[in-house]
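Q: Start with the shorter request: fold the first protein.
A: Done. Sequence, then structure:
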Amino acid sequence: MKNTPRLVLGHIILTQRFMIITATTPALLTECRKLLESHLQEILVEAQDKRQGRGGQPGGLTSAQPGDLKGENHSWLEPDYVAVACSVQDGLQALGYSSRQQRGAVKLWFDFCSKVQPSIRKTAVWAATVIYAFTRLEKEKFINQQELAGRYGVASSTISSRFRLLCRSLKLVAYDGRYSTKKPKN
């Protein structure tokens, strides 16, 4: 059964980076937030399906392959993981990384999600973290945490802490053969 929007007394203010919701009571605010999150998630799924050129999947987006993420076929555990993967792919493409490199970064993210199953509050934090980690693995076109933080509207300290978690969880090393397209220079 699908939730239908109900009249909520309050305001919604949209900016480039934030959505501000006000309501007359805390209970209405909580209900409105849940309803909006649900609807925004549906919109994200529909937009992703359109981008992929297929209809919606019943039961959500648990085994989605956004645009096949340039040829990779992953069964994602959460829709937010897909959103991060798409952001990583788009971000690396914008930085001039090849499709093969983008696949390596998405695989890194998929392996991390499969192992840790992180809770996602801000997809931008994880996208910036994966991009940072991957640029460190490749040791090419290095981009620093502050620059990524500015691009993604997140704190560099958050990227730093998530980066450490990612490295520890996957035991990442420079030119890691599981993800990197580069070989160490002898």
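Q: Next, the second protein, separately.
A: Sequence, then structure:
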Amino acid sequence: MEAPGWQIVLAVHAIVERDGQVLMVRNRYEDGPWWSLPGGRLEDHESFADAVGRELHEETGLELVRLGALAYTVHVHVDDRRVQYLSWAFAVDEWRGSAPGGRTRDPEGVVEAVRWFDQDELADLPGWFPDPLPTWLRERRQYHYHYVRQWDALPSRPRYRIAGRP
């Protein structure tokens, strides 16, 4: 999806929990590797549930059985790249299979690894922007987050400020 002069990226993410742990994937992009929830872009005419199921299976090998409630939404506004990222993170109520240890099945080759993390480890993981996942896991309240990218002294080290949260 595009707006005049801007690219708009729509994405979904899956929150998969097991015994107090959360399943994460390590992504490799030009900005460096970072850990995130399994997920990715919506394809044309794809529902949220279908996209979550497809991405979960592609990146981890797990099969979505029942999608849970919307946990939070994130809007990342990146002026210097003229792109906006809109993503929806959903709880996964039921899934089938076992996540691979370390390796992934990602057909795009972006996901380098799959791993279960204890909830107290999540806040310290390097990420592309401040992930609201630890807050959601603690409070279990639906939020919308809006981040605006700002640059530090070094152009290769962006930082984000939270522009809105109810």
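Q: Describe the second briefly.
A: The longest helix spans residues 48-60. The chain has two helices and eleven strands.
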